[in-house]
Design a protein that fits this description.
The protein is of the alpha+beta class. It contains 21 helices and 33 strands. The longest helix is centred in the middle third of the chain and has 21 residues. Keywords: Signal. One of its GO terms (biological process) is carbohydrate metabolic process.
């Protein structure tokens, strides 16, 4: 990493950045402090009247020789990534491969401000041996993530400079890529301070680098003589002058538990949420702000439209109008001129980097809005329809909401939403006129991704995603139909019957294009081959009935451009169950078949895997979608929540009993024909019970992003495995993930308590 040489001695640095807990003039954040241990890391979270931040530190029991520190702030999606390595054996007299001991001093993680009016956080770290500052990145969280998951590669534009230093203090400085002079109000930067606070025996030894090499920063820990009691503390402070966000506290986010117009299940779900006694309520509150929701920490502490909408749909019955309209408004505000909806908002220093890469350096760090996904556009209307037409919280609020003037663009929310409605209808019309593969909605030109499985490998290199075409397109159309019929908005150019007819064609014809049928004997042979390749036990197949003569049917993960199916059993049928209006008996049979024990189905002892390539005639998918792949045979918590919510919704159509339903889902008229088949309903309930047993098997991971499995061939059991330790690219899981908190809006029919998962 290139650094600039500087020999200026730092004067009064500690006094400059030791101020903590002061109130920033432009924020008023509810206080939050909590810790989450996940994936070999300890994660500390803080929100107060100064800032919001997450700090990650490698757990003390990690066998890794080095220790990693991450600081991430939603403000500008800014932060710092630092690796501390054991010093060389010649220097320390220790085995250089021994794990370095670095721990957070209790109570030291606090907000901090500086004399430069920068805002951030500080923390005191205790070192048990000499250490060297390794790779360090200051500024954009996205740059940090690119380094961690990109093979240790970083663009030199993100290099820091060495500013002031002495034997107890050092300042590492990052001026934003596209910024003006320090005297300008547009000046943006970040600083990382390393200091030995009063009473610490630690010292720093700094050797400046040159144009091509970073400085050498050694942390010296004196040897402890018998009877001595010295503490080697290094204070780390990361600050930036990005504007802090205003958080939604638990009272503003969750409905109170008051028994008014609430079902028994909803009242149960609300226990401990609004008063903050439920730890999960505080965690999801950390991710939500007055003008947008963020997706997850530490890697995605910024706006993602898809994540916001899916989380909202699952949590909506438990949320206040303020929270719901915050999320809906954020999505509407970021629509483009065609009506497409923003997938990801890139802000801060990384926005400058993206703008330069797109040939527009003149726009500086103006936010860059990404519209490459095809699913995000389809998730907004179902959420709006559910809120304003079906939930008590949305009653009589539509007129005021849709008349609101947008702050990020010109027009009212109604104007912008009309663009999205017409955009979605325009894309859906060709298939309604000629329902063949070529008229399905595929990936955008030049893009390898388009749905929540946002990797080329995650779609099995397919082009037409299953969830987009079978669930989300018709769901968006049905929501539009309902909004027209309900008089929520004035859609002058649309007719509800026409929209309904377009939706009907999609519902009737799209799923069949994804249907995969494999002869029973062939399916069994492929399954046995997969068990061997995946290093599983063949005895796992004995727990479920073999199919030596019958056929096996399931829905493809995606279709290639020529219509060839990617024959991977998958979890995306959950979208149809949550968003679908006319889910058929045949479709539900496919769901029941998928909710069998893995590897015959998707359910393990530690959750539902999102992809199972066991039946694919293309054997390369076994390696592409293995247990080390981000979208492979791994467990995404929100997918479990989606499936669980969808089963509850479908089964709720068969009964007026609302004691087990947290959400409000009006029973269709007429009710589904399969509801009169008691045996079939029992089959669905059995599948639901199996799913929840699987979910409860990894309840300690339930609010994280994703995890993998380890299999014990001796006991034939699965256990949770950290994805980062398996992934060849270093892809890891966020300790908290917004859409995983959808479980707070669900009820476990097996009797488990979802709010204490």
């Amino acid at each position: 990493m290139r650094v600039a040489r500087s020999t200026k001695v730092l004067a009064l640095l500690q006094a400059c950045h030791a101020i903590a807990g002061q109130t920033a003039a432009n924020t008023s954040n509810p206080s939050l402090t909590f810790k989450v241990a996940s994936g070999g890391n300890d994660n500390y979270f803080l929100r107060d009247n100064v800032t919001s931040a997450q700090l990650l530190l490698t757990s003390e029991n990690s066998t890794s020789a080095e220790r990693r520190l991450v600081v991430a702030l939603p403000a500008g999606n800014s932060g710092a990534l630092v690796y501390f390595s054991p010093s060389d054996a010649e220097t320390t007299g220790k085995n250089s491969t021994a794990a370095l001991g670095v721990s957070l001093v209790d109570g030291s993680f606090k907000s901090a401000t500086t004399d430069y009016s920068n805002v951030g956080v500080r923390a005191d770290l205790a070192f048990d041996a000499n250490a060297t500052l390794g790779v360090t990145i200051i500024g954009a969280v996205r740059a940090m993530r690119d380094y961690v998951e990109g093979g240790g590669v970083m663009h030199e534009i993100f290099n820091y400079t060495l500013a002031e230093y002495n034997d107890t203090s050092v300042r590492l400085h990052r001026q934003w890529i596209n910024t003006t002079s320090p005297t300008s109000s547009d000046y943006k930067s970040a600083d990382l301070y390393l200091t030995a606070p009063a009473g610490s025996s630690a010292q720093l030894s700094v050797t400046p680098g040159n144009t091509w090499t970073p400085p050498t920063v050694n942390i010296i820990v004196p040897s402890t003589s018998e009877g001595q009691n010295t503490t080697s503390i290094l204070r780390v402070t990361m600050v930036t002058n990005e504007t802090s966000l205003t958080g939604l506290d638990v009272q503003a986010f969750f409905l109170p538990q008051n028994g008014t117009n609430a079902t028994q299940a909803l009242e149960t779900a609300l226990q401990g949420l609004a008063d903050g006694t439920n730890a999960a309520a505080q965690q999801v509150s950390f991710l939500t702000y007055a003008d947008k929701f963020t997706a997850g920490g530490w890697r995605f502490l910024t706006y993602f439209g898809r994540d916001s909408m899916i989380a909202l749909r699952l949590l909506m019955p438990t949320l206040t109008s303020e929270a719901i309209e915050s999320a809906l408004g954020a999505v509407i505000e970021r629509a483009n001129s065609t009506g497409a909806l923003c997938h990801e908002e890139t802000i801060g220093d990384y926005a400058s980097f993206v703008n330069i890469g797109n040939g527009h350096p003149e726009v500086g760090n103006q936010p860059f809005y990404d519209y490459k996904m095809v699913d995000t556009d389809l998730l907004l209307l179902p959420a709006i329809s559910h809120y304003f037409l079906e939930l008590p919280a949305g009653q009589r609020r539509a007129a005021q909401f849709f008349s609101k003037n947008a702050s990020l663009q010109t027009g009212t929310y109604a104007d912008i939403l009309n663009r999205t409605i017409h955009y979605n209808l325009q894309r859906a019309t060709p298939f309604s006129q000629s329902p063949n593969v070529s008229n399905l909605i595929g990936l955008r030109p030049g893009q390898p991704v388009g749905n929540w499985r946002d990797s080329n490998e995650g779609l099995g290199y397919g082009f037409y995603p299953f969830d987009v075409n079978t669930a989300l397109v018709p769901a968006s159309l049905r929501a539009t139909q309902k909004l027209i019929e309900g008089g929520i908005l004035d859609f002058a150019a649309l007719n509800a019957s026409h929209v309904a007819n377009v939706a009907s064609v999609w519902e009737a014809h799209a799923p069949a294009l994804f249907d995969v049928t494999v002869n029973g004997k062939e399916a069994e042979a492929r399954l046995e081959s997969f068990v061997e390749a995946a290093n599983l036990s063949i005895t796992l197949l004995d727990s479920t009935a073999r199919q030596p003569t019958s056929k096996l049917s399931f829905y493809a993960l995606s279709l290639k451009e020529d219509g060839t199916p990617v024959e991977v059993l998958n979890s995306d049928t959950g979208f149809n169950l949550v968003y679908g209006e006319n889910v058929s008996r045949d479709f539900l049979r496919h769901v029941v078949d998928a909710l069998q024990p893995y590897p015959r189905g998707l359910l393990t002892d530690v959750g539902m895997v999102v992809a199972n390539p066991a039946y694919d005639s293309n054997k390369t998918m076994i390696d592409v979608l293995n247990r080390a792949a981000y979208h492979g045979t791994v467990v995404w918590s929100f997918q479990q929540g989606l499936m669980a919510s969808g089963l509850a919704r479908q089964l709720g159509f068969c009964s007026l009993d609302n004691t087990t339903s947290v959400d409000t889902n009006p029973v269709p008229s007429p009710i589904p024909e399969w509801c009169s088949d008691a045996q079939f309903v029992r089959t669905l309930r059995d599948a639901q019970a199996r799913l929840w047993t699987s979910i409860q098997g990894a309840k300690d991971e339930i609010y994280t992003e994703v995890w993998s499995y380890a299999f014990d061939n001796t006991t034939n059991t699965f256990s949770v495995a950290d994805l980062a330790s398996l992934s060849p690219s270093g892809t890891e899981s966020d300790a908290i993930q917004l859409w995983s908190y959808g479980f707070l809006g669900l009820h476990d029919p097996n009797g488990g308590n979802t709010t204490s998962l």
